């Protein structure tokens, strides 16, 4: 069922990638192939309906343009992972998150606000009268936890509520977060369809073949899209490029840890502090690395320089 994988170097990692049966769903290329292609609509609808059960039932979707320009000339635009709309006009923003950003929650609010403001017509706003359709953000967190999340719950539904009554204040805006690394059920413990979806996202690269438990046309399409053998030559190049980018990012963080130890820091203290700090510092460190800052400067800016 599972492939035994041990990665000790970049060369080993690339060798393993060539022995994979399925692609890594947390790479940008793979995520869009599995969930954002015309042939994957059934997969995305099935996944969203399980994730938003009790909130929304989706029958059809249309993929949107994922690039939203700034409202003024000097303002940068926003590029989303996946946005789509159902037949009632509800907008869904689906994205993967590999590392915590400094203003993670604010970013989610900004992006959903952009999707709301885009609904305003260019004219006749009086007739429109602010009749908004639903906006949902779904974020799948690969290897970090939601900020301030101090429970074992891996699924979080967030909305606007009246703190006095405890009732929902506005039901057309919702945020759903899936903390994948908190999902620790074995295959024998899977009870719901949502359990199955999260399990295969977390464990897909460990499968040598498709487990018999995952039945139905939605899973048929999922495993077909995720199969390495279904990639064209060009798609295989894109997949390997995504793997290389992920590995290069990991190298930045690993090297930061190594430099910290070389400077005489106690390893146990360093590892413990880095584990807690790396999630929040990851995005900043990668940006600084791409901008040409030295590793010493990156360590100081991101909090890895733990001992004076």
What does this 3D model show about the protein?
InterPro entries: RpnA (IPR010106). This is Putative transposase/invertase (TIGR01784 family). It comes from Pedobacter metabolipauper. The strands form 2 sheets. A 6-stranded mixed β-sheet has the order 1-4-5-6-8-7, with helices on both faces. A two-stranded antiparallel ribbon has the order 2-3. The longest helix has 30 residues, at 233-262. It is 42% helix and 15% strand. The protein has 2 domains: 12-231; 238-302, no CATH class. By secondary structure, it is an alpha/beta fold. It is globular, with a radius of gyration of 21 Å. A hairpin with a 4-residue loop joins strand 4 (82-86) and strand 5 (91-97).
Describe the secondary-structure layout:
Layout: H1 10-19, H2 28-35, H3 41-51, E1 61-63, E2 67-68, E3 78-79, E4 82-86, E5 91-97, H4 104-117, H5 125-128, E6 135-141, E7 155-161, E8 168-179, H6 193-203, H7 217-226, H8 233-262, H9 267-290, H10 295-302
Helix pairs in contact: 1-8, 8-9, 8-10, 9-10
Assembly annotation: single chain
Q: Which shape, going by the Cα principal axes?
A: globular
Largest sheet: 6 strands, mixed
Tally of discrete structural domains: 2
Assess the beta-strand content as a share of residues: 5-15%
Distance separating the two termini = 48 Å
- Please tell me the overall pLDDT: 79
Strand order of the largest sheet: 1-4-5-6-8-7
Please tally the β strands and state the result: 8
Based on CA atoms alone, the radius of gyration comes out at 21 Å
Helix content: 40-55%
* Distinct helical segment count: 10
What letter string, H or E per element, gives the SSE order?
HHHEEEEEHHEEEHHHHH
- Pairing-aware structural class of the strands and helices? alpha/beta
Which stretches are poorly predicted, pLDDT < 50 over at least 5 residues? Answer: 4-10, 12-16, 70-77, 266-274, 304-308
Pfam families: PDDEXK_2
Protein name: Putative transposase/invertase (TIGR01784 family)
InterPro entries: RpnA
Organism: Pedobacter metabolipauper
């Amino acid at each position: 069922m599972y492939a035994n994988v041990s990665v000790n170097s970049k060369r080993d990692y690339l060798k393993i990638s060539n022995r994979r049966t399925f692609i890594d769903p947390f790479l940008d290329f793979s995520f869009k192939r599995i969930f954002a292609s015309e042939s994957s609509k059934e997969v995305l609808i099935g996944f969203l309906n399980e994730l938003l059960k009790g909130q929304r039932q989706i029958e059809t979707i249309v993929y949107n343009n994922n690039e939203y320009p700034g409202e003024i000339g000097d303002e940068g635009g926003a590029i989303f992972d996946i946005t789509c709309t159902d037949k009632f006009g509800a907008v869904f923003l689906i994205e993967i998150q590999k590392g915590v950003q400094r203003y993670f929650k604010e970013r989610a609010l900004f992006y959903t606000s952009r999707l709301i403001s885009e609904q305003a017509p260019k004219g006749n706003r009086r007739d429109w009268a602010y009749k908004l359709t639903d906006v949902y953000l779904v974020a799948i967190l690969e290897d970090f936890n939601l900020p301030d999340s101090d429970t074992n719950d891996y699924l979080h539904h967030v909305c606007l509520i009246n703190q006095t009554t405890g009732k929902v204040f506005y039901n057309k805006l919702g945020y759903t977060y899936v903390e994948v690394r908190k999902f620790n059920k074995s295959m024998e413990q899977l009870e719901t369809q949502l359990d199955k979806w999260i399990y295969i996202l977390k464990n897909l690269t460990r499968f040598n073949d498709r487990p018999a438990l995952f039945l139905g046309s939605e899973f048929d399409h999922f495993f077909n899209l995720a199969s390495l053998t279904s990639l064209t030559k060009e798609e295989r190049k894109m997949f390997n490029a995504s793997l290389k980018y992920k590995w290069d990012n990991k190298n930045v963080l690993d090297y930061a840890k190594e430099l910290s130890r070389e400077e005489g820091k106690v390893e146990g203290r360093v590892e413990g502090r880095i584990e807690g700090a790396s999630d929040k510092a990851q995005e900043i460190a990668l940006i600084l690395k791409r901008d040409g800052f030295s590793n010493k400067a990156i360590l100081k800016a991101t909090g890895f320089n733990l001992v004076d």
